[in-house]
Write a structure and sequence with these properties.
The chain has two helices and two strands. By secondary structure, it is of the alpha+beta class.
């Protein structure tokens, strides 16, 4: 139950920070760029707009995260299959 409360708190704090960032950014003279990724399983969908210099570092970060997620996914499958082979009650 504590993790659920922590999840709601983190989501709320993130929402407030995004809202404050949008309200406090009044200068329209500064060029802006945006990049992000949505992970569906271990696979990223990368999006963005702005200068191309922004996407190089983000692509490396998202590729690294994606490789880590694929590795964790494969390890979890291997552990699951190992547990099924050992039978009930076996480790």
């Amino acid at each position: 139950m504590k993790l659920v409360a922590l999840g709601f708190l983190v989501t709320f704090v993130g929402f407030v920070l995004v809202l404050l960032g949008a309200l406090l950014s009044t200068s329209s003279q500064v060029p802006s760029s945006l990049a992000g990724a949505i992970f569906i399983g271990p696979f990223p969908i990368i999006f963005g707009s702005g200068t191309k210099e922004l996407f190089g570092p983000f692509l490396w970060v998202f590729a690294t995260i994606s490789v880590i997620l694929v590795a964790l996914y494969l390890v979890s499958i291997a552990l699951f299959l190992k547990g099924r082979r050992s039978g009930p009650g076996g480790i």
